[in-house]
Amino acid sequence: MHLTRRTFALASAAAAAATPAAAFDGRKPIVIAHRGASGERPEHTRAAYLLAIEEGADFIEPDLVVTQDGHLIVRHENEISGTTDVASHPEFAGRKTAKIIDGQRIEGWFTEDFTLLELKTLRARERLPALRPASARFDGLDAIPTFQEVVDLARQQSACCGRPIGIYPEMKHPAYFASIHLPIERRLAEALKRNDLDSVHALVFVQSFEPESLRNFQAMSQAKLVQLVGADRPEMVSPEGLRRIASYAHGVGPDWSLVLPTAEGALAAPSTLISDARALGLQVHPWTVRAENQFLPPALRRGKSPGAHGDAEVVFKALYAAGVNGVFSDFPGLAVKARG
């Protein structure tokens, strides 16, 4: 079976009334593969996305940054020394520099200083090799994907698997990219239109930490929008903060600790975030549940190694019981299993 762009878009719309992956269907919460199955393969690689889909993820998440020649590519940050082998390329040694990104001084190599052709000569590697040595064994195998390649992969895998696979792109540092005349919003809106995915019914969520970026995007696209919220911004998910979000977004993506606080090292009762959001018609998609002890409350850790897996299933099940509409995870297979 081959899906064209048009039939892929129509399949996405039909799925909105037919499958657990559907947006707003009120049934099973969606599982969003955070940068792919990034706990098991180097993040944002074809291998990570394919494994996530094999494990049952409903959506795959590409983080978007921009190249010097204006292409959308998929990296967690525009600084790429931690996720590629750029430092081992002598031809790019002179591109190392320091920049102020969102108020922080960062040193390294930046996507906006490379053309797409140049970036395609690099290979991806595990960002947390000490914590995830099994994933690091796949270093050097994959190139940096473009956004279009991720859309195409989702389309191809939807056909192969017989179920729709959604995409959940995040616009990274949109204010910074706008300041250097490489705005992400317009490029992403145009890409969704080219792929017949510019619809509230398509299996697409567009996310950002920057409210102004989402408001700008709202004027360019009909896609569903999700406001990301860090643990250090609890005021954004207060009743008043959620009312502001509801004026431009379809959902909120909070750090999962804003849904499930901890007390004395263990999970406490859920906050009112979900009921407050639901009253405003907002979906809630918390991020990011990881399996390693380093990312879990003390009561859920197993053994002494930071990289050993603790009892993440408790977190998944507590989030599902609290009524979330979806959950981000580096280990989508665990999220699917816990969902049942």
Give structural notes.
- It catalyses: a sn-glycero-3-phosphodiester + H2O = an alcohol + sn-glycerol 3-phosphate + H(+).
- GO terms for molecular function: glycerophosphodiester phosphodiesterase activity.
- Keywords: Glycerol metabolism, Hydrolase, Signal.
- The chain has a single domain, classed as Phosphatidylinositol (PI) phosphodiesterase (TIM Barrel, Alpha-Beta Barrel), CATH 3.20.20.190.
- The strands form 5 sheets. It has a 4-stranded parallel sheet, with helices on one face. A 4-stranded parallel sheet has the order 9-10-11-14, covered by helices on one side.
- It is 30% helix and 15% strand.
- A hairpin with a 2-residue loop joins β12 and β13.
- It is an alpha/beta fold.
- The model is unreliable at 13-24 (pLDDT under 50).
- The chain contains 12 helices and 15 strands.
Domain count, please report it. Answer: 1
CATH class: Alpha Beta
Q: How much of the residues is beta strand, in percent?
A: 15-25%
CATH architecture: Alpha-Beta Barrel
C-alpha-based Rg, rounded: 19 Å
- CATH homologous superfamily assignment: Phosphatidylinositol (PI) phosphodiesterase
Alpha plus pi helix count: 12
Mean pLDDT: 94
What's the CATH topology label? TIM Barrel
Give helix % range.
Answer: 25-40%
- If strands are numbered along the chain, what order do they take across the biggest sheet? 7-2-1-15
InterPro entries: GP_PDE_dom (IPR030395), PLC-like_Pdiesterase_TIM-brl (IPR017946), TAT_signal (IPR006311)
Enzyme class: hydrolase
Keywords: Glycerol metabolism, Hydrolase, Signal
Signal peptide: 1-23
